[in-house]
Input
Amino acid sequence: MAVCVAVIGKDNSPLYIGGVGNDTSSDNELSRQWLVHTALDALEERLATTNTNNTGTNSNAARTDLRDLYLGLLYSTDTHKIYGYVTNTRIKLVLVTSSTSPSGSNIRDAEVRTALRRLHALYADAICNPFHLPGDQITSPKFDKQVKNIMLNNVGSNIRDAEVRTALRRLHALYADAICNPFHLPGDQITSPKFDKQVKNIMLNNV
Amino acid sequence: MADDIVFELLHSEIINYALEQTKDNDNEKKEVDLSVVEYIGFAAGYKIMERLTREWPRFKDELDTMKFICTDFWTCIYKKQIDNLRTNHQGVYVLQDNAFRFLTNFSNGHQYLEFAPRYVAYTCGLIRGGLANLCINSVVTAEVQSMPSCKFHIHVQRT
Output
């Protein structure tokens, strides 16, 4: 699961650093700041390669990839993995996951990307607050709560709501097919091996 | 359609309000002070930019950013694109709008020409704020020669 999320301003000053869980000593505020700041150099490096790319030595595919706001895994230590995202307005979003926890090792890239995109949306909402001055730290409790929600729900728990929904919808479709079998009497148990096989397929693949 | 009208009326009232304020402060000066209006535009531009660029790939360079201002940014606010973009490739950009929305309600002649600068101050701030959030510091001025058309000069400040 995500242990820490940070919003870093244009001039590398932290606007917001939030973390969940403080059961171990490595989760305190100071080590969070340290973790986030170790990634900033790697982040600047990625951005620099994006800029030099304009002169046009690399392939087109690589360039479009680098123009993506999501920068992927920046830095990994024994205990943590650090992912980065830089907006067009040079705001850096950093997400730190723990690689020691059982679920931490198999976080998918797409999940981190989704979490960071949602964080970006939350940030955009937060600075649209008319009382927020550009460059100020974000102190909004609402933002804090929503960010912690992202950290708890999305990254780490491997099954997403959307996946469960898809699986159940497909199960519904299979059920509808199964009872359309003319030999099936209403209220009977479904004994069709075909149905059984397809349901097991859903269970194995999807959820 | 209705929300456009609300924006236009609010904008003209803000200008009236700012003019009233400056009139109270000093009666001697003939000069109108629109820096407040410009700042309101700046704050709005700064904040709106974060949302507009959310789904946008990273900008390659300054010109790419200016094109964004001319197309998406302008469409979002004025429901049309900039008609002409010119640059000297040394940090000066001229954006020309042939039918600038805040001026289209006035007569096309010279009748209200002297009041036109009031109605472009907000937009200058808007552009400046948007660019400032994209890490481009600039000075934006506007020029109205014939009535509904308006030119915005952007001087990028390099340090």
Q: What stands out?
A: Helices of chain A lie at 29-52, 60-66, 109-127, 141-153, 161-179, 193-205. Chain A touches chain B at residues 10, 50, 54, 64, 66-69, 86-91, 120-121, 123-124, 127-128, 130, 134 (CB under 8 Å). Chain A has six helices and five strands. The longest helix of chain A spans residues 29-52.
